[in-house]
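Dear colleagues,

As part of the handover before I leave the project, I'm documenting each prediction I ran so the next person doesn't have to rerun anything. This entry is a single chain, and its sequence is reproduced below.
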Amino acid sequence: MPTHTIICLDNSEYMRNGDITPNRLEAQQVAAMKQCNSVLEGPESTIGLLKMAGDYPKLLLALGKDKFNLRAELGSCQIEGSRIELINSMKKAYLAVKKRSDDDVGDRSIYVFVGSPLKGIDQDEFMKLAGRLRKSNIAVTFINFAGEDALVPNQEILQQFIDKVNKDNNSRLESVPPGPHILADMISQGSQSGGSSNQFDFNEDMDPALAAAIRLSLIESGQAPPEETSQPPPQQQQQPENALIDPDMDDDLAMAIRLSLQEEENRKRQEQQDTMEDDASDDESDGEDDEEEDDFELQQALAMSMMDAKPKEEDKVDDEDFLTDVVGNLPGVNKKGDSSNDKMEDDDELEKQKKKKDDELEKQKKKKDDELEKQKKKK
């Protein structure tokens, strides 16, 4: 089955650190390219790239299969910004892998490199995003290599996310301690040892405090059992019941004790089942709300893009005063607002009056001429 994966890159200032050979940025590029090659082994699988630091998270490469473009974008990813925008980056990655054609089949996942301390994380929003990804069946992998001071705090934040998003063991967290080792090799070792176990072959004697802190965090999160503990044998598991039932006890009393213990066990199982159903119901309701939010966000983005394609309102000339002032400068147009038809009617009226006056003058002149002619004849 094909896989569609978005790889989120950490390109913050922390990636200059050389606590992993040769430095965090170059080690990340090698590990990311190795992951790309692994994903693209599938004939229909696709992969994309996204950077998390800078002015804003940016999708460097949409889902595709072109290894040449992948290498070029990985190599050109420069350090910028003091920290990563983890939540916004994962939201963009989520939309990139989720809004594919309905004809596409296959697994969808987000692969996140975290090489810097996670500061200012809104835990409620982070957990809401985890529920949204779980609802959409999108797997998440975190590679935590933030250095000695931030490794354990990051791990605690990211592990809560993994516990929420994990579905059918499809998500994992891998923490890589600092040291003179290759990041890609350490990730491979972690994958082979069980994914989210975070167990790596590093020398604990080199940094006992860090090793103890990692071990304690794993125990508290339930990823590793406490030291020197093992599963009790079957004989010991039956010890509580055997301790309550005396061999010489009356058969009816012994049966009553067994029934009581059985009822208590059934009650605990029912409580666990109810809790799991409630969690599933919460995830479903959260997912429906998130679907509506995603659709609204995409509609907004589409509307904004359509607005960009339309002429701006500022480009329209709706000011009558402005039109009057501009058109009034043309020949034959009255600035006071008289239309051209009114102007022509006025001209016709003046022409008629002038003609009438000329006719009257002509008649008076002719009349005088006639009178003079008569006087001459009389003489």
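Confidence is low (pLDDT under 50) at residues 194-203, 228-241, 308-317. The CA atoms of residues 31 and 184 lie 4 Å apart.

All the best with the project,
I.
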